[in-house]
Amino acid sequence: MTFEWSAIWAAWPDLMSGAWMTVQITLLGLVGGTLIGALAGVIITYVPVPVSRRSLSWTVVALVVLYALLRLASWLGGGLLADVPQPVWWLVQAAVLVALIWRFAAWIPVTLSVLAQVYVLLMRGTPIVVQVMFIYFALPLIINLRIDGFTAATFTLMINSGAYIAEIVRAGLQSVPKGLQEAGQAMGLPFYKILAFIIGPVALRRMIPTMGNQCIISLKDSSLFIVIGVAELTRQGQEIIAGNFRAVEIWSAVAIIYLIMTGFIALVLKFVEHRTRIL
Fold first, then answer.
1. Which CATH architecture has domain 5-48+112-275?
2. What does DSSP assign to residue 263?
3. Residue 136, CB half-sphere, CA atoms under 13 Å: how many?
4. Which end of the chain is more exposed for a tag (fewer CB within 10 A), N or C?
5. How many other CB atoms sit within 10 Å of the CB of residue 71?
6. pLDDT of 247-278, one tens digit each?
7. What pLDDT, in 10s, does the model give residues 100-146?
8. Cβ neighbours of residue 265 under 8 Å, at least 6 residues apart?
9. What distance in Å separates the CA atoms of residue 86 and residue 113, rounded to the nearest whole number?
10. Residue ranges per domain, the chain?
11. What is the pTM of this model?
C-alpha cells in the first residue's frame, strides 16, 4: 500500500472547513463555559452549602414546591384565568415571582450555591455524547423548539466545560491564602473589589495550567459532535473517506491538524503563564 499525498491535497479545502468549524465551536463553547464556570465557582466557594441529609432534604422540598407552583400556574392559565389576556397573565406571574424573591431574598445565595453544585454534579457525571444527544433530540420535544446542530454542539460544550471550569475556579480561589482577603477587609474594601483586585489575580495565575488543559480537552471533545452530524473536522474526514476510501491518508491529516491546533493552544498558554508568573 502506498501513501498518496494527492488524496490529502484534494481533500484539503474540506478539511480546513471542518477545522474552522471545530475552532468556532470550541471558542464559543469555552467563552460561554468560562463565564458560567467562573460564576458557579465563585458562588460555590464563597457560599458553602455542605452536602448533608438536611441540605438534600431542603433541596428536594424546594424542587417539589417549585414544580407545584409551575403546575398551579399552568392550571390557572388554562382554566380559571383562560380569558385573561396573555400579557396580563405574564405580568401576574412576574409579580408573584418578584414577591417570592423579595420574601425569600436571604435564601437566594444558598439556593444559587445548591443549584451550582447540582449543575456541576450533573455535567461531570454524564458523558458529553449523552448531553449533546439529549439537547439535540430530546430537548426539542420537551420545549417544542428545534435547534440546529451547530447551536446544540456549542451549547453542549458550553455547559460541559463550564462545570469543569467551575471546579478549576473553586480550586484556584481556595488556594489563595486567607490573609489576602483579611487584608482587603482591613482596608475597608467591598467583597467584589477584594475578589477582583486581590484574590482574583493571584488565583488566575494558578489556574492557567489547568485552564489550558481544559481548553485542549474541549477542543478534542468537539470531535464527539459527529453523532449529530455537525460538519466539524472529524465529520469532514469521515465523509471524505466515504468518497475516496483513503482512510490512512485522511485520518493522518486529521490527526496532524488536531495536533497543530492543540499545540498552538499549549504554546499560547505557556506564553501567558510565562508573562504572568510571580517573580
1. Orthogonal Bundle (1.10)
2. H
3. 21
4. C
5. 10
6. 888 999 999 999 999 999 999 988 888 887 76
7. 778 777 777 888 888 898 899 999 999 999 999 999 998 888 877 78
8. 212, 215, 216, 219
9. 33
10. 5-48+112-275
11. 0.85
